[in-house]
Write a structure and sequence with these properties.
mainly alpha
Amino acid sequence: MIKALYVLAMCGAIACVTNAIASAQGQSYPLIDKLADKVIAKYQNTSCQQLAAEKQQPPSGQKAAEEQKAVAYLKSNPQAAQYFINKVAAPIANKMFECGMIP
């Protein structure tokens, strides 16, 4: 009887830990979602020639300040950075491949 209770308690503990891990991995970042959607839209709606030209010109003014702020936040929050990268990596890589910017 005691073994059965012990096993039941362990199963309950494992279920709680699994649920906590799943919740943490499914963490929501509404601002990161907006930023990622903006980046994805930029790559999807920009021609290859425009992307190549933008790559040659470093950002300046307000755009540079916004990018620095976003990068600083992502560097200080590894989970948010991973969430952002996982969301934007495929669309950016596909566009760059389409444009011949990566082999």
